Amino acid sequence: MVEFCSVSESSRPLPWLPSAEWGPVAIAATDIQMVFRSGLSQVKVLKGVDLTVNQGEIRLLMGPSGSGKTTLLSILAGILTPTAGQVALLGHKITQMSRQDRTRFRRHHLGFVFQDFNLFPALTAAENIELALKIKDYPKSAIAARARTLLSQVDLADVSQRLPQDLSGGQKQRVAIARALAGEPQILMADEPTAALDSKTGRAVVELMNALAREQGCTVLIITHDPRITDIADRITYLEDGHISESPSWGS
Ligand SMILES: Nc1ncnc2c1ncn2[C@@H]1O[C@H](COP(=O)(O)OP(=O)(O)OP(=O)(O)O)[C@@H](O)[C@H]1O
């Protein structure tokens, strides 16, 4: 059972929830179970996962292919509802929220980075970020300037007017990082952010993502298969056979 501390002075207020039990825990999952059913067959992917990630921590989630990492991330983000178990983000039990409230919570407090970038192909790098800021209800008059600042932070000021098709993989992922951090989310979730990149570019991208996240005091949870980036994490959690552990049984 995870205990939440009371509101700390440095915590930023949530824009739409009346009160929050803020504390040092950003992500708390208790006894998460997930069963996928198809016809008569069923597969139990998560068999009672407990996970706590502290605010400001950078955590890697590793495990063999098919072990349920993306499923767990989707549950932690409130995209998938678990078969059983509870998830609290920033002190709010998202598993007990309506779908609409979960969506709103995600929009205001979470950022996402994906393996395949997920940029809008018809929008320039700057427009991709501006759209994210609009969706997050960022003040209209400040959107263009904020997008410019973010693009400078990821060293892409000179390609801000290019479409994704005219950017390299590393550049696309840097746009995606700028977009994910645009609304200053308290939690950033990344699913295989280096998978489509060569190792040098992948490492540079993750280092940049983590530096920016640390600057913003953002909690980061990264799914990865990439052993070359393990040193950037504060802690690593391994998922295997539906359970998590602090050390892997494979490769040891
Ligand atoms: N919607 C679904 N319906 C049925 N089975 C699913 C569904 N989503 C995932 N699964 C199954 O759950 C298991 C875990 O999938 P998941 O994508 O979470 O694993 P993963 O660890 O992220 O894998 P990878 O590292 O290959 O991306 C797999 O056996 C997958 O086939």
UniProtKB/TrEMBL annotation:
Superkingdom in the source lineage: Bacteria
TM annotation in the entry: none
Cross-referenced CDD domains: ABC_MJ0796_LolCDE_FtsE
InterPro entries assigned: AAA+_ATPase, ABC_transporter-like_ATP-bd, ABC_transporter-like_CS, ABC_transpr_LolD-like, MacB-like_ATP-bd, P-loop_NTPase
Recorded GO CC terms: membrane protein complex; plasma membrane
Keywords: ATP-binding, Nucleotide-binding, Transport
GO molecular function, one term: transmembrane transporter activity
Family matches, as SMART domains: AAA (SM00382)
Pfam families the UniProt entry points to: ABC_tran
Domain ABC transporter residue range list: 30-252
Protein name as catalogued: ABC transporter ATP-binding protein
Annotated organism of origin: Halomicronema hongdechloris C2206
